[in-house]
Amino acid sequence: MSAAAENTTTRRVFLRRAGGSVLAGSVAGQLEFRRATASAAGVSRPRWDELAAKLGHKLVRPGDRRYLQLSRPLNLRYAGVHPGGVAVCSHVQDVRTAVAWAHENGVPVAVRSGGHNYAGYCVGPGLVVHVGGMRAVSVDDARGTVTAQPGARNTTIYAALQPHGVAISAGRCPTVAIGGLVLGGGIGFSSRKMGLTCDHLVEAQIVTAGGHLLTCSERRNADLFWALRGGGGGNFGVCTSYTFATNPVSHVTLYDIAWDWADAPAVFEAFQAVIESAPEEFSARLGVGRPGDPRTGGKGPPTVSALGQYFGPEHELVDLLAPALAAGRLKKRLIARRTFWQAKNYFFHTTPEIAYEVKSAYLDRPLNGHGVDVLLRAVERWPGSRNPDGAGAAMFASGGAINRVAADATAFVHRDSFALLATETEWTPRDSRRTVARGLAWVERLADELRPHTNGSAYQNFIDRAQPHWQAAYYGRNFKRLTRVKRRYDPANVFRFRQSIPRA
User: pLDDT tens-digit profile of 371-385?
Assistant: First the structure.
């Protein structure tokens, strides 16, 4: 057996063992969540009135005209979750007041910054601590850092950084808030060059379960600082600010390429080979999918495309992409030198308020021919919906600076992968229950069929309520350490949801 095969086997054995050992914990966690839900529902009106007296108009309760807007997650699949109240925080003291009240009354807390949580965990049955309005960003040229409040969006942070000619590795969606992005890792088109968003983090301030404000860094509360870099949002407290180290940026070469669908197998083989040999300056999103038909609920033609950037000149990128460019008939070919900021604007993709389901998995190596065939045939048989974005799969290149960090140096454990694979189906309120059910069955079947080609891990920022053995999938061997951090900083389990880190 080769060393690579032995490592893969060892990992799979670990995942099977970890999955067995954490199953009981998963069941216990769900039972505890149900008890918490019942507890929150039973909190008396006078107790809520007590919080309202402390927060004033910042506590929004059912019946308030702002309630639906503030309590509805971006993924409308979970719009039926109705919190007991929403604390709309504008400064740290609001957060401390809200969290302390929840702790005293046994009410579970959900933390919301931008509302993009894939599984809708940014809302819950208890109290939502809404920090989306805390958006201040400041740049310190002398220290080479940027400090952002949790509600600052990608657009806000980029706008603050651009005059200084520096950046951090952040996401593609302009409306995603930094608070949700960094805690689960944070991937983007600069990650192979600069590292994950969480790898830039040098300090964070957090309100813990008892309402205490702590500063976390390598020197202060180092165990909690470790957990905040990849341990997932809403698990340990409410972060009120993040400080990141920045990197100088100037120009990149972006690319946006599409091929004829008939050439998709050859394109996948060639492009995955490009990723394997590419330097860390190269980033990639290789995607397949098909749109839905807003009129009929059917589906449009399938597509295969690639998008990304290169921290280098255009001619080097052309040489790097040459095998993929020659792999099929081109339907689109854009390769252009741009400023980092122009490229960022080109890549921006706004996620509308829709209903969707996303599955994720990490790959140790390129998909073989059978795996590619599974993926392409699935896209062809997608049942359709009225959502123009439809369904599909995207492969995000890993490696480079991401993988140079040790797996236990931060809570983000996925440090030896070739790529992240995400599959998705979307629908609209106009789609029938049958259409929704068929779409969900499609994405679950695809995840099952791809599982033999993955390493059993999944991306915690693409959190999925149906993820099997999620503790091992998201956190691997770092899970037990995370539970110890949880027990120390949140012994009463105030921050809890169906897939939250449990107390050890």
Answer: 999 999 999 999 999
